[in-house]
Design goal:
By secondary structure, the protein is of the alpha+beta class. The protein has five helices and twelve strands. The protein binds one DNA strand of 18 nucleotides through loops.
DNA sequence: ATGTCGTGGACGCCACGA
Protein backbone atom coordinates (compact mmCIF):
# COMPACT_ATOMS: atom_id res chain seq x y z
CA UNK A 1 0.00 0.00 0.00
CA UNK A 2 1.16 3.53 -0.77
CA UNK A 3 0.12 6.18 1.79
CA UNK A 4 0.63 9.91 1.25
CA UNK A 5 -0.04 13.18 3.05
CA UNK A 6 -0.30 16.55 1.35
CA UNK A 7 -1.29 20.04 2.45
CA UNK A 8 -3.12 20.99 -0.77
CA UNK A 9 -3.90 24.64 0.18
CA UNK A 10 -7.47 24.68 -1.20
CA UNK A 11 -8.95 21.64 -2.94
CA UNK A 12 -11.10 23.83 -5.15
CA UNK A 13 -8.08 25.75 -6.47
CA UNK A 14 -6.00 22.54 -6.64
CA UNK A 15 -8.58 19.96 -7.71
CA UNK A 16 -7.29 19.10 -11.17
CA UNK A 17 -3.69 19.08 -10.02
CA UNK A 18 -4.42 16.78 -7.08
CA UNK A 19 -6.47 14.42 -9.27
CA UNK A 20 -3.75 14.31 -11.92
CA UNK A 21 -1.15 13.56 -9.27
CA UNK A 22 -3.28 10.76 -7.80
CA UNK A 23 -3.79 9.24 -11.23
CA UNK A 24 -0.06 8.94 -11.91
CA UNK A 25 1.42 8.47 -8.43
CA UNK A 26 -0.16 5.10 -7.60
CA UNK A 27 -1.12 6.39 -4.16
CA UNK A 28 -3.79 4.27 -2.49
CA UNK A 29 -4.58 6.58 0.42
CA UNK A 30 -4.09 10.35 0.51
CA UNK A 31 -4.50 12.49 3.63
CA UNK A 32 -5.16 16.11 2.64
CA UNK A 33 -4.92 19.25 4.74
CA UNK A 34 -6.12 22.81 4.18
CA UNK A 35 -8.91 21.88 1.81
CA UNK A 36 -10.34 25.30 2.69
CA UNK A 37 -13.96 24.36 2.11
CA UNK A 38 -17.11 23.12 3.76
CA UNK A 39 -18.19 19.49 3.34
CA UNK A 40 -20.79 20.34 0.70
CA UNK A 41 -18.16 22.15 -1.38
CA UNK A 42 -15.73 19.21 -1.58
CA UNK A 43 -15.54 17.70 -5.12
CA UNK A 44 -16.46 14.16 -4.04
CA UNK A 45 -17.72 13.17 -7.50
CA UNK A 46 -14.45 14.04 -9.26
CA UNK A 47 -12.55 11.81 -6.81
CA UNK A 48 -15.09 9.03 -7.16
CA UNK A 49 -14.69 9.11 -10.95
CA UNK A 50 -11.03 8.12 -10.62
CA UNK A 51 -11.77 5.50 -7.97
CA UNK A 52 -11.29 7.28 -4.64
CA UNK A 53 -13.79 7.57 -1.84
CA UNK A 54 -13.31 10.63 0.38
CA UNK A 55 -14.14 11.46 4.00
CA UNK A 56 -13.94 15.23 4.47
CA UNK A 57 -14.28 17.51 7.49
CA UNK A 58 -14.61 21.23 6.79
CA UNK A 59 -16.48 23.91 8.71
CA UNK A 60 -15.58 27.12 6.83
CA UNK A 61 -12.99 28.51 4.41
CA UNK A 62 -10.31 27.85 7.02
CA UNK A 63 -8.50 24.55 7.65
CA UNK A 64 -10.38 21.49 6.35
CA UNK A 65 -9.00 17.93 6.28
CA UNK A 66 -9.77 14.78 4.30
CA UNK A 67 -8.81 11.17 3.69
CA UNK A 68 -9.13 9.81 0.14
CA UNK A 69 -8.82 6.06 -0.45
CA UNK A 70 -9.10 3.55 -3.27
CA UNK A 71 -8.65 0.58 -0.90
CA UNK A 72 -11.70 1.09 1.30
CA UNK A 73 -12.77 3.80 3.73
CA UNK A 74 -14.52 2.85 6.96
CA UNK A 75 -15.47 4.41 10.28
CA UNK A 76 -14.57 8.02 9.38
CA UNK A 77 -14.33 10.25 12.47
CA UNK A 78 -13.88 14.02 12.49
CA UNK A 79 -11.57 15.39 15.20
CA UNK A 80 -10.24 13.31 18.09
CA UNK A 81 -11.11 12.87 21.75
CA UNK A 82 -10.12 15.97 23.70
CA UNK A 83 -9.29 18.12 20.64
CA UNK A 84 -9.11 21.77 21.75
CA UNK A 85 -10.86 24.64 19.99
CA UNK A 86 -9.63 28.18 19.50
CA UNK A 87 -10.68 31.77 20.02
CA UNK A 88 -8.33 34.73 19.80
CA UNK A 89 -9.65 35.85 23.19
CA UNK A 90 -8.77 33.11 25.72
CA UNK A 91 -11.64 34.31 27.94
CA UNK A 92 -14.20 33.49 25.27
CA UNK A 93 -15.68 30.11 24.38
CA UNK A 94 -13.22 28.22 22.16
CA UNK A 95 -14.55 27.48 18.68
CA UNK A 96 -14.12 24.02 17.13
CA UNK A 97 -11.84 23.89 14.07
CA UNK A 98 -11.62 21.32 11.25
CA UNK A 99 -8.04 20.18 11.84
CA UNK A 100 -8.37 16.42 12.17
CA UNK A 101 -10.16 13.48 10.59
CA UNK A 102 -9.42 9.77 10.53
CA UNK A 103 -10.70 6.71 8.72
CA UNK A 104 -9.76 3.04 8.43
CA UNK A 105 -8.30 2.16 5.01
CA UNK A 106 -7.40 -1.49 4.40
CA UNK A 107 -6.85 -2.08 8.10
CA UNK A 108 -4.90 1.13 8.79
CA UNK A 109 -6.41 4.01 10.79
CA UNK A 110 -5.18 7.01 8.83
CA UNK A 111 -5.28 10.44 10.44
CA UNK A 112 -5.13 13.64 8.40
CA UNK A 113 -3.87 16.36 10.76
CA UNK A 114 -3.42 20.08 10.36
CA UNK A 115 -1.61 21.25 13.48
CA UNK A 116 -2.23 24.93 14.39
CA UNK A 117 0.44 27.32 13.07
CA UNK A 118 1.07 29.13 16.35
CA UNK A 119 1.64 32.49 14.65
CA UNK A 120 3.97 34.12 17.22
CA UNK A 121 5.48 32.84 20.46
CA UNK A 122 3.45 35.40 22.47
CA UNK A 123 0.20 34.71 20.59
CA UNK A 124 -2.63 32.66 22.16
CA UNK A 125 -2.43 30.57 18.98
CA UNK A 126 0.97 29.30 20.15
CA UNK A 127 -0.46 28.05 23.45
CA UNK A 128 -3.28 26.50 21.44
CA UNK A 129 -0.75 24.73 19.22
CA UNK A 130 1.09 23.20 22.18
CA UNK A 131 -2.15 22.15 23.83
CA UNK A 132 -3.43 20.69 20.56
CA UNK A 133 -0.28 18.59 20.12
CA UNK A 134 -0.38 17.40 23.75
CA UNK A 135 -4.02 16.36 23.47
CA UNK A 136 -3.40 14.60 20.19
CA UNK A 137 -0.55 12.68 21.76
CA UNK A 138 -2.75 11.67 24.70
CA UNK A 139 -5.48 10.49 22.37
CA UNK A 140 -3.07 8.55 20.13
CA UNK A 141 -1.36 6.96 23.13
CA UNK A 142 -4.71 5.81 24.51
CA UNK A 143 -5.73 4.39 21.14
CA UNK A 144 -2.48 2.44 20.85
CA UNK A 145 -2.65 1.33 24.48
CA UNK A 146 -6.09 -0.14 23.86
CA UNK A 147 -4.65 -2.27 21.01
CA UNK A 148 -0.84 -2.43 20.85
CA UNK A 149 -1.05 -4.24 17.49
CA UNK A 150 -3.11 -1.45 15.88
CA UNK A 151 -1.89 0.03 12.59
CA UNK A 152 -2.20 3.80 13.08
CA UNK A 153 -0.76 6.58 10.90
CA UNK A 154 -0.61 10.14 12.23
CA UNK A 155 0.04 12.09 9.04
CA UNK A 156 -0.14 15.72 8.09
CA UNK A 157 1.21 19.23 8.39
CA UNK A 158 2.70 19.36 11.89
CA UNK A 159 3.90 22.96 11.54
CA UNK A 160 7.01 21.97 13.53
CA UNK A 161 10.56 21.70 12.19
CA UNK A 162 11.97 19.13 14.65
CA UNK A 163 15.67 19.41 13.71
CA UNK A 164 17.84 22.43 12.98
CA UNK A 165 18.47 21.08 9.47
CA UNK A 166 14.70 21.18 8.83
CA UNK A 167 14.90 24.93 8.10
CA UNK A 168 17.26 26.61 5.65
CA UNK A 169 18.76 28.97 8.23
CA UNK A 170 18.25 28.65 11.98
CA UNK A 171 19.29 32.27 12.53
CA UNK A 172 16.24 33.42 10.57
CA UNK A 173 14.04 31.42 12.94
CA UNK A 174 15.50 32.76 16.17
CA UNK A 175 12.52 33.67 18.37
CA UNK A 176 10.03 32.28 15.84
CA UNK A 177 7.50 29.48 15.96
CA UNK A 178 8.05 26.03 14.38
CA UNK A 179 11.53 25.61 15.94
CA UNK A 180 11.00 26.54 19.61
CA UNK A 181 12.02 23.94 22.23
CA UNK A 182 8.43 23.44 23.52
CA UNK A 183 7.17 22.74 19.99
CA UNK A 184 9.98 20.28 19.36
CA UNK A 185 9.36 18.59 22.71
CA UNK A 186 5.69 18.26 21.83
CA UNK A 187 6.67 16.66 18.52
CA UNK A 188 9.20 14.22 19.99
CA UNK A 189 6.75 13.25 22.74
CA UNK A 190 4.92 11.14 20.13
CA UNK A 191 7.97 8.91 19.99
CA UNK A 192 7.59 8.27 23.72
CA UNK A 193 3.98 7.32 23.06
CA UNK A 194 5.06 4.65 20.55
CA UNK A 195 4.75 6.61 17.31
CA UNK A 196 7.84 6.75 15.10
CA UNK A 197 8.42 9.27 12.32
CA UNK A 198 9.11 7.03 9.31
CA UNK A 199 9.90 9.39 6.42
CA UNK A 200 13.16 11.02 7.48
CA UNK A 201 15.31 7.89 7.36
CA UNK A 202 14.35 7.42 3.69
CA UNK A 203 14.66 11.13 2.81
CA UNK A 204 17.76 12.31 4.70
CA UNK A 205 18.76 15.95 4.87
CA UNK A 206 20.15 18.50 5.03
CA UNK A 207 18.30 20.65 2.55
CA UNK A 208 15.34 18.28 2.27
CA UNK A 209 12.06 20.08 2.79
CA UNK A 210 8.31 19.62 2.37
CA UNK A 211 7.21 23.28 2.36
CA UNK A 212 8.40 26.44 0.67
CA UNK A 213 6.75 29.83 1.32
CA UNK A 214 5.12 31.44 -1.69
CA UNK A 215 6.89 34.74 -1.00
CA UNK A 216 10.33 35.83 -2.07
CA UNK A 217 11.29 33.09 -4.52
CA UNK A 218 11.81 30.67 -1.64
CA UNK A 219 11.43 27.51 -3.76
CA UNK A 220 14.07 28.33 -6.41
CA UNK A 221 16.30 29.64 -3.63
CA UNK A 222 15.81 26.34 -1.78
CA UNK A 223 14.60 28.10 1.35
CA UNK A 224 12.21 25.49 2.66
CA UNK A 225 11.08 23.74 5.81
CA UNK A 226 10.46 20.08 6.67
CA UNK A 227 7.18 20.24 8.57
CA UNK A 228 5.04 17.46 7.02
CA UNK A 229 5.43 13.98 8.51
CA UNK A 230 4.08 10.50 9.00
CA UNK A 231 4.19 9.06 12.52
CA UNK A 232 3.40 5.36 12.59
CA UNK A 233 2.47 2.92 15.34
CA UNK A 234 4.90 -0.03 15.74
CA UNK A 235 2.82 -2.48 13.70
CA UNK A 236 2.57 -0.03 10.81
CA UNK A 237 6.16 1.26 10.99
CA UNK A 238 7.31 -2.37 10.63
CA UNK A 239 5.69 -2.44 7.16
CA UNK A 240 7.50 0.63 5.78
CA UNK A 241 9.76 -0.12 2.81
CA UNK A 242 10.46 3.43 1.63
CA UNK A 243 9.42 7.08 1.56
CA UNK A 244 9.74 10.08 -0.73
CA UNK A 245 8.94 13.78 -0.98
CA UNK A 246 7.54 14.72 -4.37
CA UNK A 247 9.13 18.17 -4.75
CA UNK A 248 8.22 18.15 -8.46
CA UNK A 249 4.69 18.98 -7.29
CA UNK A 250 5.93 22.30 -5.87
CA UNK A 251 6.96 23.44 -9.36
CA UNK A 252 5.03 25.46 -11.87
CA UNK A 253 1.94 27.60 -11.87
CA UNK A 254 -0.85 26.52 -9.56
CA UNK A 255 1.29 24.52 -7.11
CA UNK A 256 0.51 24.14 -3.43
CA UNK A 257 3.18 25.55 -1.13
CA UNK A 258 3.62 22.00 0.26
CA UNK A 259 4.86 18.85 -1.48
CA UNK A 260 3.31 15.39 -0.99
CA UNK A 261 5.07 13.08 1.49
CA UNK A 262 4.72 9.45 0.38
CA UNK A 263 5.32 6.19 2.28
CA UNK A 264 5.41 2.69 0.81
CA UNK A 265 4.17 -0.23 2.92
CA UNK A 266 4.55 -3.94 2.19
C1' DA B 1 12.53 30.91 -15.31
C1' DT B 2 10.33 31.64 -10.57
C1' DG B 3 9.63 38.22 -7.77
C1' DT B 4 2.77 35.12 -2.91
C1' DC B 5 -1.60 32.58 -2.65
C1' DG B 6 -6.51 31.56 -1.45
C1' DT B 7 -11.12 32.80 0.42
C1' DG B 8 -14.99 35.73 1.44
C1' DG B 9 -17.31 40.13 1.77
C1' DA B 10 -18.98 43.80 -0.45
C1' DC B 11 -16.51 44.62 -4.77
C1' DG B 12 -13.04 45.64 -8.54
C1' DC B 13 -9.95 46.45 -3.04
C1' DC B 14 -9.48 44.88 1.63
C1' DA B 15 -9.07 41.71 5.64
C1' DC B 16 -7.31 37.62 7.17
C1' DG B 17 -4.52 33.39 7.57
C1' DA B 18 -0.44 31.13 6.06
Amino acid sequence: MRLATWNVNSIRARRDRVLAWLERSEVDVLAMQETKCKDEQFPHEAFREIGYEVAHHGLSQWNGVAVASRVGLEDARPGFDGMPGFHKDPEMAQDPEARAISAVCDGVRVYSLYIPNGRELADPHYTYKLDWLARLREHAAAELNADPSAQIALTGDFNVAPEDEDVWDMEVFDGKTHVSPPEREAFFAFDGAGFREVTREHTPGPGVYTYWDYTGLSFPKRKGMRIDFQLHSPALAARVTGASIDREERKGKGASDHAPVVVDLD
